[in-house]
Predict the structure.
Amino acid sequence: TKAAKEARPRQRATPPPQRSPQEALARFEHALIRNPADPNIYARRGKLYAEELGQPELALEDFDQLIALQPNSARGYVLRGRLYAEKLGDPRRALADLAKAVSLDPGNSDAYAARGLVYRGMNELKKALADFTCAIGLDSSDALVFRQRGQIYTELGKAELALADFTRSIKLDPDEVQTYLERARVAQSLGLMDRALEDYNEAVRRDPSSAEVYYERGKFFLQIGKEKLARADLDRALGMQASQGRRG
């Protein structure tokens, strides 16, 4: 009956099995046999080569093909620019590709964010700041870009602006523990010790298996003269590192 059916507990849908990178690669290769001119397949396979299979040279071939198929699209230039910067160690070519992406699509926030990272790696902090600011102006929902701009402000000695960016990043992505640590350090530099302690405590609460968070909080306790608490955190961090080393 209808009532009996409604009374039965609903069975949870079984999630689809996770495919291995090799299985995903095989699927892309089959898809290219059917659709050899599909740019989306080259984009996705290139990212697979770059991010999961550790084969940046093959990723480069796919992104080259993507650009050949879509020469007026910014997407391929952003992907290839990131690849040059992050996997192939060629910031000059990365900048050229990302500049092309910006010229093709001035509203592409990913292109500005990627170029900002390249400039930061070259220690061109003011150029990095300008690009991260452009990226945020185009898309204010990306927690990572706020965090990256906060890091630039920190390096430029603009602690109040860094604090604001880290706060915005945490609001957008409250699960990223590193942002709490970065905001805590900036709060320390401004003499906001209670606020810094709140962030260190939150980092420990969110990732209690991390030696780093105990080490950072231990250093903070040393700075404010709480040696017993500092020793407890630092001993715990060292013990965790030793345990991880034995397992590794």
Notes: The radius of gyration is 23 Å. Confidence is low (pLDDT under 50) at residues 1-11.
